[in-house]
Amino acid sequence: MRIAFYDTKPYDRPSFDKYGEKYGIKFKYFETKLNEDTAELAKGFDGVCVFVNDTVNAAVIDKLCEMGIKLVALRCAGFNNIDMKYAHGKIHVFRVPAYSPYAVAEHAMALLLTSVRRTHKAYIRSKDFNFSLNGLTGFDLHGKTVGVIGTGKIGKVFINICRGFGMKVLAYDKFPSNEICDGDAVKYVELDELLQNSDIISLHCPLTDDTHHLIDGTAIEKAKKGVIIVNTSRGALIDTEALLAGIKSRKIGAACLDVYEEESDLFFEDNSNRIMEDDTLARLISMPNVILSAHQAFLTEEALENIAETTVQNIVGFFENKPCPNELCYYCGFVQDCKNGKCF
Fold it and tell me: Using CA atoms, how far apart are residues 259 and 59, in angstroms rounded to an integer?
């Protein structure tokens, strides 16, 4: 089996080489992203492996199908970059539903702690031998209320971390989980109640039509004055212009972001020697109460190993015609939920 591997970074290769050799898969690594112009690179391969900023739209799907490619293997959980409706019945799509919920949840807390205790500012000062404490006053997380939107695997881990700090948790999810709700320290509420009563709001839900710009101007207006917003999920969950307006009006006290809704042409690349043409991102980064990391929440040794192993197993399972719980279906969510186990 030969797989065209798009948007390759140095940290991808060791784990994929390891599991590729183990399962008899040969990866051809391309640094370029998959799009209409680069799809031809996959000619002669059995499938493609893509990441969050690769484009798998109708035009790309048509080109892949013309070349006889029947498999798109996502090495991530999100799949909003794929036209799933158009892919239905044409090409099989697999994802990695969970690689390390601890990696993402811990990064969310790291961003939050950095923001509230000003450790990033203290680090820069100390490098210049400036040991003044002026302007570094933070606040305790203990006793604060955190609103967690999305209580899947990552959300649950984040809730447990918050409970360890002695925080109260308000949770919102369309599909509540009884295992985390105790009615006291953790309880499910409606979204409006969460917005109105949370000192911190952390997003851990997928990007769908329903969640696109979940945090918009209206939601921000309902929130507490000085609320801190944390997003390690998908950039488009937040309306960035509304976020900027909320920061400028002092309604939002701080933003801790690992994602950005227009990140696809920027993140994972070194843009330090270029003029930043994205004015919105430039304004966001210039804000003293905004912390932005470049979609690195997943980036731990454990997560990279899990991503590679699951992706390779998805590929092998497909070509061996084995049922796989990680295959996606536009109509049913997952192929395992489809009638007779197939939508093709």
Answer: 26
C-beta neighbour count of 202 within 10 angstroms? 28
- Residue 18 phi/psi, 5-degree rounding, is -60, -55
* Annotated catalytic residue 234: yes
pLDDT digits (tens, 9 = 90+) for 210-254: 999 999 999 999 999 999 999 999 999 999 999 999 999 999 999
Catalytic-residue membership of 21: no
Half-sphere exposure of 50 (CA within 13 A, CB side): 28
Spatial distance between the Cα atoms of 116 and 336, rounded to a whole number of angstroms: 43
Q: Which two tokens stand for residue 259?
A: 């994602």
pLDDT on residue 179: 79
Q: Which of 75, 295, 309, 327 is catalytic?
A: 295
State the pLDDT at residue 323: 85
Closest-CA residue to 158 (of 294, 260, 297): 297
The candidate with the shortest Cα–Cα distance to 145, out of 184, 104, 103, is 184
| Confidence check: pLDDT of 334 > 60 | no
Each residue's pLDDT tens digit, 17-44: 999 999 999 999 999 999 999 999 999 9
Q: How far apart are CA 204 and CA 331, in angstroms?
A: 23
Are 270 and 249 a contacting pair, CB within 8 Å?
A: no
pTM for this prediction: 0.88
Q: Are strands 328-329 and 333-334 parallel, antiparallel or unpaired?
A: antiparallel
Residue 48: exposure state from Cβ atoms within 10 A (0-12, 13-18, ≥19): buried
The catalytic position among 106, 261, 263, 327 is 263
Residue 340 has pLDDT above 50, yes or no: no
SS3 assignment, position 157: helix
Residue 262 known to be catalytic: no
Position 320: which residue type? E
**pLDDT at residue 268 in the model:** 86
* Annotated catalytic residue, options 234, 261, 309, 327: 234
Q: Where are the alpha helices (DSSP H) in 173-268?
A: 191-197, 217-222, 240-248
Q: What is the pLDDT of residues 290-315, one digit of tens each?
A: 999 999 999 999 999 999 999 999 99
